[in-house]
Design brief:
Layout: H1 2-36, H2 40-53, H3 59-71, H4 75-85, H5 91-107, H6 111-124, H7 129-141, H8 149-156
Helix pairs in contact: 1-2, 2-3, 3-4, 4-5, 5-6, 5-7, 6-7
């Protein structure tokens, strides 16, 4: 009897689960199309919605949401997405996240953090040419001084 109950329950629930997966895939494709078209606001809404409706956020969705926030110059929100990816089990995502965080640190005139992040990106993937270029560029121009909080706030405004 228990077996029959489980079988009926699975039969009833399976179409609902499959529909949810299909809707998630469609939303992801829509978000990717919007991002590629430069419609970052729409992409942001679609990726953010995807991250809310799934029980575990797909690291690819998190990365794309971070990129979308970055394109919209919402660096704080982008940073939180990228920082989460630094703890990913995927090296390819960690190197991209570290590179993006390094760029954000540069925007905030924090050369010391940027150098560390670009170095981290290179340790994850020595072939990361963007991180290598940025590391060398910042290294040549780095003053050796870590900006204080006051100058950081002024540069962010």
């Amino acid at each position: 009897m228990t077996y029959l109950f489980i079988l009926v329950w699975l039969w009833w629930e399976m179409p609902h689960s499959l529909n949810q997966i299909s809707r998630n895939n469609e939303a992801r494709q829509e978000a990717e199309v919007a991002y590629e078209a430069g419609d970052y606001v729409r992409a942001m809404h679609l990726y953010a919605n995807l991250s809310r409706i799934t029980t575990t956020i797909d690291p690819g969705v998190r990365l794309n949401l971070g990129h979308t926030y970055f394109q919209l110059k919402r660096y704080g929100k982008a940073r939180s997405q990228y920082e989460t990816l630094l703890r990913s089990d995927r090296s390819d995502l960690r190197t991209i996240a570290a590179t993006q965080l390094g760029v954000i640190a540069c925007f905030q005139q924090d050369s010391a953090s940027a150098l560390k992040l670009f170095e981290l990106a290179l340790l994850e993937n020595p072939d990361n040419e963007a991180a290598r270029y940025d590391f060398e560029l910042i290294k040549k121009r780095f003053s050796g001084q870590i900006p204080n909080q006051t100058s950081r706030k002024k540069s962010a405004e």
